[in-house]
Each structure stands twice: as C-alpha cells, then as structure tokens.
C-alpha cells in the first residue's frame, strides 16, 4: 500500500535513492536535495513501507504563481497512478493561484501533463542554466 505524506525532512539516502532510480543528475547531490526539500514551499511524497517511491514539490509566492518541480516516481512503482496522485494532491493546494507552471525535464512527459490540464504556452520557451557553469561564464 502506498502512503502519501506532507513532509520536508528526508534522509539523504532516501532522496539519493529515488533521484538516482530515475537517472536524475541531482541524485549525485543528496545533501543539496535534502536542503532543497526543506526549503520548498510544499512537498508531497509517496512511501511503500519505509521506502520513498515518489515525490513532488511546489515552489510558490503564496497567492499568484506556483511552479511544480521534481515530480518523480521510482521506475519499479511507475504505472500505478502514483505520479497522478502526487500531481493532483499538489494542484488541489494551488487551486486558488492564478498560474501553475511546469517545465518538464523530458519531452516524453509532456503528454502526462497535458492529460492533467496543463497547456503548452504559446509564447513561452523554457530556459535553464545547469550546474556551476554559469558562474564562470561557460
């Protein structure tokens, strides 16, 4: 049975395991992940017993705009509706906001978000700086 929790304080090893299970670069930095979760506005996690199997976090300003970030589910647990439950749970909390944005890290996930009511922005283009390269101008 999957249990959903609203917590922000995770063990580094749990975050590392989940993020590495989906091959995310950030899994190499469990201490930063732990700090990021603690500093997030909202975090919903999915647990199978003591194992962290899914997570979503939201960053927001309290009233106007929110960004959905870090929606991931361990591949062993995908296909069970966990990602949809995590997303729906977070979106309920953002129901009164004017905008809820997401920039999927992988194009293959766009269809998932479209099924949940998101629309492709006509004028928007996602941009990103990855890692420490921006500090040196590289």
**Strand line-up across the major sheet:** 1-2-3-4-5
User: Distance N terminus to C terminus?
Assistant: 47 Å
- Taking Cα atoms only, what radius of gyration do you get, to the nearest Å? 15 Å
Helix content: 25-40%
The sequence of SSEs as H and E is EHHEEEHEHH
Low-confidence spans: none
Largest sheet: 5 strands, mixed
**Approximately what portion of the residues adopt beta-strand conformation?**
15-25%
Average pLDDT rating? 91
Tell me the total number of β-strands.
5
| Tally of helical runs | 5
The shape is globular
SS content category: alpha+beta
Write the layout of secondary structure elements.
Elements: E1 2-5, H1 12-21, H2 30-38, E2 42-48, E3 51-60, E4 65-73, H3 82-93, E5 99-102, H4 110-115, H5 133-136
List keywords for this structure.
138 residues, alpha+beta, five-stranded mixed beta sheet, 5 helices, 5 strands, 30% helix, 25% strand
Structure description:
The protein is α+β, with helices and mostly antiparallel strands and 138 residues long. The chain is globular. It contains five helices and five strands, in the order βααβββαβαα. Helix 1 crosses helix 2. The protein has a five-stranded mixed beta sheet. The longest helix has 12 residues.
């Amino acid at each position: 049975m999957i249990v959903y929790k609203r917590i922000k304080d995770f063990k580094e090893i749990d975050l590392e395991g989940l993020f590495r299970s989906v091959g995310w670069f950030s899994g190499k930095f469990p201490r930063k992940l732990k700090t990021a979760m603690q500093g997030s506005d909202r975090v919903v996690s999915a647990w199978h017993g003591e194992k962290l199997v899914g997570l979503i976090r939201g960053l927001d300003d309290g009233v106007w705009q929110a960004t959905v970030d870090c929606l991931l589910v361990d591949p062993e647990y995908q296909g069970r509706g966990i990602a949809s439950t995590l997303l729906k749970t977070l979106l309920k909390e953002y129901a009164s906001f004017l905008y809820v944005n997401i920039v999927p890290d992988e194009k293959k996930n766009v269809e998932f978000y479209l099924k949940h009511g998101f629309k492709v922005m006509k004028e928007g283009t996602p941009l990103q700086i990855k890692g420490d390269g921006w500090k040196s101008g590289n």
